[in-house]
Amino acid sequence: MANVPTPHNDAIEGQIAKTVLMPGDPLRAQYVAEHYLENVTCFNHVRNMLGFTGTYQGRPVSVMGSGMGMPSIGIYSHELYNFYGVDAIIRIGSAGGIGAGLQLRDLVIAQGACTDSNYAHLFKLPGTFAPIASYDLLRRAVDKAQELGVRTQVGNVLSEDGFYGGDPEDTGRWADMGVLALEMESAALYMNAAKAKRKALSLLSISDLVLTGESLPASERQTSFTQMMEVALSLALPEGA
Fold first, then answer.
1. Which intervals hold domain Nucleoside phosphorylase (predicted)?
2. 32 within 8 A of 23, measured Cβ to Cβ
3. CATH number of the domain enclosing 220
4. Taking phi first (over 0 means left), then psi (-120 to 50 degrees means alpha), and beta for anything else, what does residue 129 get?
5. Is the pTM of this model over 0.70?
6. What are phi and psi of 121, to 5 degrees?
7. In 3D, which of 155, 139, 2 has the Cα closest to residue 78?
8. Nearest residue to 94 via CA among 85, 104, 84
9. pLDDT tens-digit profile of 45-67?
10. Residues 79, 66 contacting (CB under 8 angstroms)
11. C-alpha distance across the termini of the chain, in Å
12. What is the domain range of residue 193?
């Protein structure tokens, strides 16, 4: 434990749990805290990137926004792993579906995260790194989703640097390689977890279908992904609880 508070997080030692749920939107973090956690305290207000710690079924859990894009989640996840002693970060986000058979509100569990970003350059590797999820979190999430009857697909996602201006032909090429969904954070999270020797998993609710143009309004993206939240919260409990 060192260098806390940080320029981006005014939590002090002991205020953040070992497991952190991390939506992009800080208001979604507040929603999770208010609707699922007990004995909640807010540990961060810096840049309005809200963070909360409470208990879920008696176990400490934190939830904090990551912001949008790999540079943003890269900062927050690095500090959580390396300065605050966090063991596991579960991203709970939205994504644009491109995989066959996906429907709005389906859950995608990101086994791996392709990317068009140069984020891996930070680690000065002599080749191409394949960012992947922590297997034990992945396995438990799949089991919980099946228990809850959640429509789920497991596989590759694409973490993009750009939100606007994508080439539809490029999207089709990714889909042809079996990529299920487009988002903007998972690859950086998985790389930071690998470097820190910690755990990470991305759970993604499908908010829009890129190839057909169907989408959910912003208000529903903030509050309606309850099954994803329940799967994520189960990962903070002892296995079998």
1. 19-229
2. yes
3. 3.40.50.1580
4. beta
5. yes
6. -60, -25
7. 2
8. 104
9. 999 999 999 999 999 999 999 99
10. no
11. 29
12. 19-236
Is 208 a catalytic site residue?
yes
Helix (H, G, I), strand (E, B) or coil at 240: coil
- Catalytic residue, candidates 136, 161, 167, 208: 208
pLDDT tens, position by position, 192-238: 999 999 999 999 999 999 989 999 887 776 566 899 999 999 999 99
Q: How many residues does the chain have?
A: 241
How far apart, in Å, are the Cα atoms of 216 and each of 124, 147, 222, 225, 232? 39, 25, 10, 11, 21
Would you tell me how many other CB atoms lie within 10 Å of the CB of residue 112?
18
- Residue 189: φ, ψ to 5°: -60, -45
Q: Are 63 and 51 in contact (CB under 8 A)?
A: yes
| Structure tokens given for 73 | 């989640």
Residue 14 lies inside a defined structural domain of this protein: no
Residue 9 lies in a domain: no
Structural domain count, the chain: 1
39 domain-assigned: yes
Q: Which residue has the tokens 């950086």?
A: 188
Q: Please confirm whether the linkage preceding 5 is cis (ω < 30° from 0).
A: yes
In a domain, 241, yes or no: no
CB 84 within 8 A of CB 8: no
Question: Tell me, what amino acid is at 14?
Answer: G
Instruction: Return the structure tokens found at 146.
Output: 């099946």
Structure tokens, 1:
């434990």
